[in-house]
Amino acid sequence: MSQDPEQAKKLQDLLKMLSLSQGDTSKLTQPQRKQFEEYKFWKTQPVARFDEQVDDEGPINSSQRPEDIPDEPLPLLSEFEWCTVDLTNSQQLEDVFVLLNENYVEDQDATFRFNYSREFFNWSLKGPGWRKDWHVGVRTKQSGRLVAFISAVPATLRVRKKLVKSVEINFLCIHKKLRAKRLTPILIKEVTRRVNKQDIWQALYTAGVVLPSPAATCRYAHRPLNWSKLYEVGFTGLPANATKTQMIAKYTLPKETDTPGLRSLEEKDVDEVYDLLEKYQSRFDLVQVFTKEEFKHIFLSSKNVVYSYVVENGGKITDFVSFYSLPFTVLNNPHYKELGIGYLFYYASDADFQYPDRFHPEGSLKLRKRLNRLIADVCIKARDLKMDVFNAMSCQDNSLFLDDLKFGPGDGFLNFYLFNYKVRPIAGGLKQDNTFDTEKRSSVGVVML
């Protein structure tokens, strides 16, 4: 699995720290000691080790039963108490909204922060089969304020040829002032306990940091839609030997879409598009397998969050594409409060279905042309919805169009992890130098929010 030099150095530093786990750690700096404690926790969990050679893929620990799992959660510090967050309650939904919008992931310079909407939480956390007790919170006893949160949603994964009953873990958030309280491991253990009580033992989760041990690593890519605004808020810089006028011209999109038959996904399309997506997803080694009920919820239920389109020609749907909206709050900027951001979600095309081999040269060329046209039109749709940048990753078949459509490689990498499941490395669409691999492409077909 390829990693950039900075990630490789971090990994080497980490391995040195782990070697001290049975010895003297007093010489570690305070940041190193904190990092060491994080990895010390993961060493106790059923996850693949960095240096582990995986021959047989499958569960790491398969002997437990729900009745073996404690009925009561781990104890918390005296000033905190566990809670189950009821997202059907408007005030509790508001509590999650406030916690994440004030404390969730932001960039290192504290310039941007995710700006989740209430509708986004309802869409992402209340799909078919959702459980209230999988929305885990910590409140202060004195004020009742929500200061920590983690969620699990049910998911059926296909890891290569095996179906795995699982959950996706997301929205782990600790209030900024409490991040020295070691709440993260306890939150992870508590959501694990609640999931295990339902006889589910595997989970998929992602992180920008390197933990033991990534199943796959993908890279972010950004396609400016409103370059001048991105420049003014500090999201992008002005390259050497270029002018602002040149950069604006470089990223200007056509006024109208170009794909004949492109229209919004409708209820009547579900059966045909579901089959198209399922066939397209079969080419990847790590995917989420949807039921039709899940498909409807994910792609049709939230018009202001997710946008889904099909291409219909001669009464047949040949392509499907979707993206979702997750804006950034712009911090400490007198002129702009928000960046509109679109994220490429799931898509499917029959462009190369006639070829038995996914990497057949003629089939790859046909798919590349089809996706270039389709994703260019999606960027136009996103621009017309007042989005300022369109994000994608190196997963799926994205490397076929990222460079062609002027997506710039981002600084961020996203690592995919499987809990209690060993797997051989899965291609993330990157070459050894972390440029996009248009030949081998990615075998990751799942898209995490």
Automatic annotation (TrEMBL):
Domain Glycylpeptide N-tetradecanoyltransferase N-terminal: 59-218
Statement: the UniProt record of this protein carries the keyword GTP-binding: no
Protein name: Glycylpeptide N-tetradecanoyltransferase
CC annotations in GO: cytosol
Domain (Glycylpeptide N-tetradecanoyltransferase C-terminal) ranges: 232-447
InterPro entries: Acyl_CoA_acyltransferase (IPR016181), NMT (IPR000903), NMT_C (IPR022677), NMT_CS (IPR022678), NMT_N (IPR022676)
Subunit-structure text: Monomer.
Native source species: Lachancea dasiensis
Top-rank EC class of the record's enzyme: transferase
Main location (coarse class): cytoplasm
Catalytic activity: N-terminal glycyl-[protein] + tetradecanoyl-CoA = N-tetradecanoylglycyl-[protein] + CoA + H(+)
EC number from the UniProt entry: 2.3.1.97
Subcellular location field: Cytoplasm
Molecular functions per Gene Ontology: glycylpeptide N-tetradecanoyltransferase activity
Annotated keywords: Acyltransferase, Cytoplasm, Transferase
